Amino acid sequence: MGESVQTIQTVHIRQIGEASLIFHRFKRNKLGVAGTVALTLFILLALLAPYVAPKDPLAADLSNNLTPPSEGYPLGRDELGRDILSRIIYGARISLTVGLISVGIAALIGVPLGAASGYRGGWVDSLVMRSMDVLLSFPSILLAIVVVAALGPGLTNAMIAIGVALVPVYARLTRGMVLYVKELDFVEAARMVGARGSRILFRHIMPNCLAPIIVQSTLNIASAILSAAALGFLGLGAQPPTPEWGVMLSKGRTYLRVAPHVSIFPGIAIMLTVLAFNLVGDGIRDALDPRMV
Q1: pTM: predicted TM-score of the whole model, two decimal places
Q2: In angstroms, rounded to a whole number, what is the distance separating the alpha carbons of residues 226 and 263?
C-alpha cells in the first residue's frame, strides 16, 4: 500500500515538473508571450464590451455618417453614423465565439473519427479516410459556402459550416498520431496484460495525442475567424446590423475612396486577432516539443 502511494506521488511530482518545464519554455518565447498578451486583451474587451465600449454599437446618426476619426469617435463613424470603435469591441465577442465554437464542432467530430480510423484500421479506416478525402477535395472556404448555402445564411449556420470544413484536419491529424502511438512499447505492454481495446485507446493512446491537437486548435481558431469574416463579407455569415468584423468590411468596401477608415479598422482587428492566435499556437508547439531547450 505504501509503495502504491509513493508511486502515485512520484508520478504527480513528475507531472508537475513537466508542466513547469513546458511553462518555462513558453515564457522564453517572446512572440508567444506577446501573442498571449494581445489575445488576453481581446478576450477582456469581448467580455467587458458593455462596460468599455464608449457608445451603443447600433445607435445610428445619419447626419454624421462616414465622419473620420475625431475626439469623441477615435476610429470614426460608419455609413450609418455608428461608432466604429464600439462596433469593433462588440465584434470581438462574435469573432472569438465563432472561432471557439467552430473549432469545437470540428474537434468533436474529427477527433473520434480519426481515433477510430487509426486504431481499428481495415474497412473503418478506408471508409473514414475516403470520406475525409472527399471533403478535402474542396477548398475549405468553398465547402463552408456550400454548407451555408444549404442551411441558409446566419451566424449559427456559419459556425456549423466552418466546423464541418475543419473536420478533415482533425481526423487526419488524430489518425496519424494514433497510428504512431499504438505501436509504442507501453501500448504493447497494456495489450499483453489483457487491457480492453477501449481502455487502451482512451487511457493510453489518446492522452499522448492531445499535444498536437491542442496546437492545431489554436491555429484553427485563427483560420475559423478568417473564414467567418469571409462569409460575413459575402453576406452568408452574421447579418446586419450585427457588429461582426466581416460584415463591417463588406459594408465599408463601398466607401473605400471617400472613407477608408470604415474598412481599415475592422481589417486591422481581424489581422491582430489572427496574428495573436498564430503566435500563441507557435509558442505552445515549441513549448511542447521536447527537443526545445
Answers
A1: 0.82
A2: 15
Tens place of pLDDT per residue across the chain (293 aa): 444 434 434 444 454 566 788 788 888 889 999 999 999 999 999 999 999 999 999 999 989 999 999 988 999 999 999 999 999 999 999 889 998 999 999 999 999 999 999 998 889 999 999 999 998 888 888 888 888 888 888 888 999 999 999 999 999 999 999 999 888 888 888 788 877 877 888 888 888 888 889 888 988 988 888 888 888 888 888 888 888 888 888 888 889 899 999 999 999 999 999 899 989 988 888 887 655 55
Read off the CATH number of the domain in which 101 is found.
1.10.3720.10
The range of the structural domain enclosing residue 169 comes to 2-288
Cα separation, 93 vs 50, in Å, equals 11
96-108: burial string, b at 16+ Cβ within 10 Å, e else: bebbebbbebbbe
Polymer length in residues for the chain: 293
Domain count, the chain: 1
| Residue 91 belongs to a domain | yes
CA 8, distance to chain mean position in Å, is: 35
Check if the beta carbon of residue 233 is closer than 8 Å to that of residue 247. Answer: yes
Q: Do the domain assignments include residue 183?
A: yes
- What are the grid coordinates assigned to 119, written together? 486504431
Q: Grid coordinates standing for 61?
A: 446618426
Residue 69 lies in a domain: yes
Tell me whether residue 293 is in a domain: no
